[in-house]
Amino acid sequence: MLWMFYSNAHTASSTCQVKKRFRAFLVRKLSWSHNMGDCIIVDDEYPGYSKEFFNVPSHYINDVESVLLPRGIILDRTAKLAKDIHEKIDLSKPLVALCVLKGSYIFFNDLLEQLRALSANANKSCRMSIDFIRLKSYTDSTSTGTIKVIGGDDLSGIKGKNVLVVEDIVDSGRTMQKLLKILDENEPNAVRVVSLLVKRTSRSTGYRPDHIGFEVPDKFVVGYGLDYNEYFRDLGHICIMSPDSVKKYSISNS
Ligand code: IMP
Ligand code: MG
Fold first, then answer.
1. What is the number of the ligand closest to the CA of 201?
2. Based on C-alpha coordinates, what's the Rg of the chain?
3. pTM here?
4. Domain annotation covers residue 189
């Protein structure tokens, strides 16, 4: 954790500022050290990394407040999620990995690459196929309240198989609950859900996926496949949007 303090301390100009930052760093370190639950918890006060330290494309540099989760950390966490999933999954039946489009496409690809490598090197493995489903519930940064299936494969093929649902972010949990109902109608053997992110929010229905990468504060995050009105999918890291960009890319205000 010390490197997080030093990297941010670069920008502090006076001793006083450095002291203040060190105190804040200690507070953050304490909160991060409570990560003993089912995932990495990103504290509400955690400001993220200064965007100057990461490669943010110039077309987004003014639209991003800070880098919440750099791609490298996401990939390291994904490797462990793959290991946990591989250990837990029932290998006696074929597995269908289901990508919830569009937001999960990068996470899905990185996770499956890890699962493929684990499967190739394990004594026991099973056949894995992939399916896609496209759901939509958001306009701007708020849920429209209706979750629509707007595309994807015919799900009748999951009958009797084990399904691994791969989602980018669980916010209220309503999208996932709706999807689980749809899957259930197609009679799979068992379903596990992995979500890269879960938001800590009062809107939560209480739904919690089987595997979670990071629990994040209740802020709208973009990048690594996650969008705001279709912008920011081409941003490598998970970032917090600047308040100006929320207005700039809003559909309802235009
Ligand atoms: P839920 O139904 O409220 O759980 O919303 C889940 C869906 O909303 C996700 O699959 C995303 O598509 C979208 N979503 C929720 N929060 C965010 C966010 O912070 N950034 C990008 N998409 C989000
Ligand atoms: Mg999603």
1. 1
2. 19
3. 0.85
4. yes
Domain range for 27 is 1-33
**Ligand 1 geometric centre to CA of 138 (Å):** 7
Instruction: Pick the ligand that lies closest to the CA of residue 101.
Output: 2
Q: Does one domain contain both 120 and 195?
A: yes
Report residue 29 as tokens: 């370190």
Among the listed ranges 7-21, 55-69, 142-156, 230-244, which one has the minimum average pLDDT value? 7-21
Structural tokens at position 187: 């009679």
43 CB near ligand 1 (under 6 Å): no
3 state SS for the chain: CHHHHHHHHCCCCCHHHHHHHHHHHHHHHHHHCCCCCCCEECCCCCCCECHHHCCCCCCCCCCEEEEEECHHHHHHHHHHHHHHHHHHCCCCCCEEEEEEECCCHHHHHHHHHHHHHHHHHCCCCCCEEEEEEEEEEEECCEEEEEEEEEEECCHHHHCCCEEEEEEEEECCCHHHHHHHHHHHHCCCCEEEEEEEEEECCCCCCCCCCCEEEEEECCCCEEECCECECCECCCCCCEEEECHHHHHHCCCCCC
For residue 125 and ligand 1, the question of a CB distance below 6 A is answered with no
Asked whether residue 88 falls in the same domain as residue 214, the answer is yes
Domain of residue 164, CATH code: 3.40.50.2020
pLDDT tens, 27-74? 454 444 345 589 999 999 999 999 999 999 999 999 999 999 999 999
Residue 170 beta carbon below 6 angstroms from any ligand 1 atom: yes
